[in-house]
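Researcher: Quick sanity check before group meeting.
Model: Go ahead. Protein one:
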Amino acid sequence: MTTKVALVGGTGKLGRIIHSVIDELEGFEVSAVLGSDSDLGELDGADLVVDASTPAVSVDVVRAAIDRGLNVLVGTSGWSQERIALVRPLVAAAETGIVFIPNFSLGSALGSALAASAAPFFPSAEIIEAHHDRKIDSPSGTAVRTAEMMIDARDEQGPFQAPHVDQRARGQQVSSIPVHSLRRPGVIARQEVILSGAGESLSIVHDTIDSAAAYAPGIRLAVPYARDARGIVVGLESLIDIGIGARS
């Protein structure tokens, strides 16, 4: 039986990559391609919704899918733990599943998990993320997810030390970590997590060099997973066994 996929944001860069991967997946077909301003009634008849729209539209896409009893794979940025918490009761009541993937790159998922693993051992941390100048949101969803994972790993240690955060140049605090966002031409995506302690520092860097090649393996994992998911699942690291616990 073929799973019919409604792809929202299918004409954007990420949407086109997702579309090409789904075309190669056995048992799946893209039955509808919606733009960010499309009538969400076009979701009718789908078995699964994949959202690659914009942060402003994504919440409406998710709610419309839940109303129809459809599972959703969300690849759109902007879904912090606080925002996800707002749809948890709706998902539970509808007995559907939503999989939030801030970044489809396996390397990025590993980098975030490594940063979370190291977080309890350092009192200070900062994140510098860079994306192309057309990216709408900042901080990136990957940076937000990384910071949330890192603070979750510090149950005993508490928040990170972050001096002078009252100054705007110190970045935006996410889970007590200053995050600095660069938006410039010639960049696809780059994230550096810098953990510091007495007399030493540890940097964990991930570079996306070719987005189509980097995202395709994660998309191949996430689409079939999302079809059968129940409840809320967050992060590609939750779908793969990397030997480091991750909180959904």
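Researcher: Fine. The other one?
Model: Protein two, sequence then structure:
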Amino acid sequence: MIKKTFGELARIISAAALSTEAASAVFTGVSTDSRRIQPGMMFVPLMGDNFDGHHYALQAMEKGATGALWQSGVPVPPELGDWPLVPVDDTLVALQQLAAAYRRELPVKVIGITGSNGKTTTKDMVAAVLAASYRVHKTAGNLNNHIGLPLTILEMAPDTEAAVLEMGMSGFGEIELLSQIAQPDMAIITNIGDAHLLQLGSREGIATAKLEIASGLASGGLLIYNGDEPLLRSGIAKLAQEQSLEAVSFGIGEQNDWVADRIRVTLEGSVFDLHGSGSERSLRLIELRIPAPGRHNVTNAAAAVACGLRLGVPVEAIASALASMKITGMRIEAVKAYNGAVVLNDAYNANPTAVRAALDLVEQLQGYAAKRLVLGDMLDLGPEEAELHREIGRYINAGKADVVYACGPLSRYTAEGAAEQLAAGSVRHYESKAELASALLRELAPEDLVLVKGSRGMRMEDIVHALEQGLGG
């Protein structure tokens, strides 16, 4: 992690000169949370509409922080004494400036990853592939925003050789900011879905926001993108010309530079071949295996392979890394119900694109007595939210589900759409998760398959836990 004197910090972020004693003090690592301060760290008090981190500065000092950033206009408590404070106009901006400067110092290859769905899974896959040849640092969990990304960069060890940074957003300009901070050598766009329609207005708007990741790429940088998405293909053709970027596509369609085919899906994962065409040299990788089921995860893996090959990771090492990698939890995680039924926990988040991918996976899985779908509301979809839920319901056919259990006010529309496709009585809507869990537990057989999916705010994992424990509401 970063190690500097406070004098060096002041010069980096153009802060006022410090006293000789304060300037010589050293910090190792940065935290915005006083509860997570370790001795020797610097504290960064952030401010928001309903909180002020400066109130916790004394706690940070008592836990061993060697100093802090301090926002102009905020009174300094006398209890802090001569504790080194670096005055800045905005502590968040100063944190971002420090991260950008630290990134420039390190001889590290940075891979930025964004997309409506699959960012975290693709991050895990890319990091696993690159770790076969490089010392790798990656975004922890879901720390992919304007605070989490700078903190992730500042946690990098000086000898890091490759950094895999996830970039999330909810509005225009946010990915551009993250890309300017991270200055990626290579960027990956996983797809364009329906998340954040409320903020961005349309899928075209979402594509424009995701393409902002190219803003921090140097001339000649590499942009790896999902070529099965027409909105990306057209937007990237223009960007590549304007910024002198190299663009490489991946996907299932033969128009891509990297094409996944011969895909076989089981509950334990997916097997596929990958061959290069177009701008990529002729190469076929046979029977690549990933511990993640679904065609959508195969395309994520194709992006990771393209990245690894470009950075010189041997084919055999790529195959081994993908086969043994670990996937972040609650992204189609198979668990057992109390009676042995298989539960696919995909409760991390939901939007129409992600839900359709999960439904496709259920259709690909065979050998179960009954397929049961538990679907919660998809949030933040804007004025078309009712029709988008209804369309998901209409997407469900007999191959995808025997019974649908919908929960939440918006999922009533999902149930309406599904009722048009499935047999009478096989679609139910519940007002509460407890009511749904009780009904599902009464009907669940050991030979069944259950998919649980919903937006983060719905906390659909509560139903997963009920199924694991055999306890209804």
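Researcher: One line on it for the slide.
Model: The mean pLDDT is 93.
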